[in-house]
Amino acid sequence: MSDEKISQTDFQKLMLLLAEKRTAHTTLRSGIALCAFSMTIISFILLMASRVTSNLEGIVFTILGAGSVLMLTLGVYFIRRGFTRMQFHDTLINQILHSNSEASYLFYHTRKRNNAHKREIPMHYDVIFHFDKGNEELDVTISNIKNYFEELSGKKFTACLVVNGPGIKLLGKDDPHAQKLTELADLGLEIKVCQNAMNHFQLKPEWLLPSGKIIPAGLLEIIDLQRKGYAYIKP
């Protein structure tokens, strides 16, 4: 069962809404009964109208017919009101159920839907580290990546460093950061370097550190990875 707990306020709201929904349901049933009863009387009056032989009988049938029409109108009103109120309360109940999955266990009619909704989503730690600035930001990024690998030691995940913009100039094989990046690459870090940025700064592939992989566009790579469920981190 989920660790999420239904709050007392939500519980009270649900109980109140359920009570009001039962009242609306009673109103709906009363309206249906009134309509059925009045239609029966009206049908009887129409059937017996041809057999009226005196003014007194005519008056009685007229009064009975008027009362039946009034009853029918009241029944239609009750049906409409009961149905509308039930829909309104269902909407409010579903809002609480959708925002608090624990609450759904209180309702039999939502159990099937919520069991499907509550299927466990496999947890993964795939991540994108995005870098596009200067020395200070790259130092922070390298530190974050190192900590990430240390904290998740023994777990299976994919970590990518996507580099574009001016940050590309710090990815050279002779740059002071090259050794640390190479060590992270040996741990499993995928270093992806934007071809557009390299073209912009007139950098050649042979200038790049060996562990760097050139990709067509850094931003598109980030979007594609996020669609696959990768978390996004930027210093």
What labels describe this entry?
alpha/beta; 58% helix; five-stranded parallel β-sheet; 235 residues
User: For the residues shown, what is the average pLDDT?
Assistant: 82
Ends: how far apart? 36 Å
The number of distinct β-strands equals: 5
Residue runs with pLDDT of under 50 for 5 or more positions: 1-6, 108-118
- Quote the beta fraction: 5-15%
Main sheet attributes: strand count, strand direction, barrel closure: 5 strands, parallel
Q: Helical element count?
A: 7
Q: What is the spatial order of strands in the main beta sheet?
A: 4-3-2-1-5
Q: Note the run of SSEs as H and E.
A: HHHEHEHEHEHE
Question: What is the 3D shape?
Answer: rod-shaped
Class per helix and strand makeup = alpha/beta
Describe the structure in your own words:
By secondary structure, this protein is α/β, with parallel strands linked by helices. 58% of the residues lie in helices and 9% in strands. It is built from seven helices and five strands; from the N terminus they run αααβαβαβαβαβ. The protein has helices at 8-48, 55-99, 111-117, 135-151, 178-187, 195-200, 218-227; strands at 127-131, 159-163, 190-194, 212-215, 231-233. A five-stranded parallel sheet has the order 4-3-2-1-5, sandwiched between helices. Helix 1 (8-48) runs antiparallel to helix 2 and helix 4 packs parallel to helix 5.
